[in-house]
Amino acid sequence: MSMRHTRKARRALAAVAIAGGLTLTVAGCGGSGDGKGKSSASSPAKPKTQSGDKTPESASPEATTTLAQVKSGDNITLTVTSAVRDTGGFVTVSGKVTNGSSKYWTPGSWAGDEQELANNSASMAGASLVDKNGKKKYLILRDTSGRCLCTKFIGPFKPGEERTYYAQFPAPPASAKTVEFQIADLPPANIDLSDGE
Questions:
Q1: How far apart are CA 178 and CA 72, in angstroms?
Q2: CA angle 137, 140, 145 (to 5 degrees)
Q3: What confidence score (pLDDT) does residue 125 get?
Q4: Coil, helix or strand at residue 64
Q5: Which key words are in the record (predicted)?
Q6: What pLDDT is recorded for position 197?
Q7: Closest CA to 168 of 190, 141, 194, 129
Q8: How far apart are CA 172 and CA 46, in angstroms?
Q9: Which domain covers residue 107, as residue numbers?
Q10: CB 90, CB 139: distance < 8 Å
């Protein structure tokens, strides 16, 4: 008789455990579908999303390093945020250009004077790197059609507008740690080269 009661007790315990497990599974899947389960499930996610949104915004100014910044008489500011020497034998310089003036501005003269780059108007095609120690100037890379490996700006900059850019050059020798970045009539900017991964 005691064996029979033990079996019944085990079955009842197993049934309770299975029922409890199913109840937790159903509750975890969102509840009855009347929206209550949905809002309670999504409410913990909201603080994560909000804090996730705030963290990159507050971290973005710290994450962006300014290597150099130069300004023209027309209140155009060029900022260099990265100058990376890649394993492929070239250097990629990137950053942002800001129109701090109160009128529209087009970087027409930034394409440079080279005939081969004549079709690269309003671009970074006229940029160059100068290795003062090695006494060598590096012009922008271009493809076989004469298109520069750089940003081409579409349309004029509005007053206060900021846009990002990149420009690629042949890499100076590994001994050149600092170079001058120059474009158009802006003053030269001394930038430190870093090694890419």
A1: 22
A2: 135
A3: 93
A4: coil
A5: Signal
A6: 65
A7: 141
A8: 49
A9: 65-195
A10: no
Same structural domain for residues 9 and 51?
A: yes
Looking at the structure, do residues 164 and 185 belong to the same domain, yes or no? Answer: yes
> Alpha carbon 180 to chain centroid distance?
23
- pLDDT by 10-residue block (mean), the chain, 197 residues: 50 51 47 46 41 41 78 93 92 96 92 81 93 94 91 94 97 94 93 87
Both 101 and 183 in a single domain? yes
Q: What pLDDT was estimated at residue 109?
A: 84
Q: Do the strands 194-195 and 76-85 form a parallel or antiparallel pair, or are they unpaired?
A: parallel
| pLDDT computed for residue 10 by the predictor | 54
* pLDDT of res. 38: 45
Domain CATH for 134? 2.60.40
How many structural domains are present in the chain? 2
93 and 160 in a common domain:
yes
Interatomic CA distance for residues 71 and 76, integer angstroms: 6
Strand order in the sheet with 136-139: 136-139, 128-131, 178-182, 189-192
185 within 8 A of 109, measured Cβ to Cβ: yes
Q: What is the pLDDT of residue 18?
A: 53
In 3-state terms the chain splits into helix, strand, coil percentages (rounded to 5) of 30, 30, 40
> Of the candidates 62, 87, 105, which is a domain's last residue?
62
Upper half-sphere CA count for residue 139 (Cβ side, 13 Å): 14
Cα–Cα distance measured from residue 109 to residue 121, given in angstroms and rounded to the nearest whole number: 8
State residue 191's pLDDT score.
Answer: 96
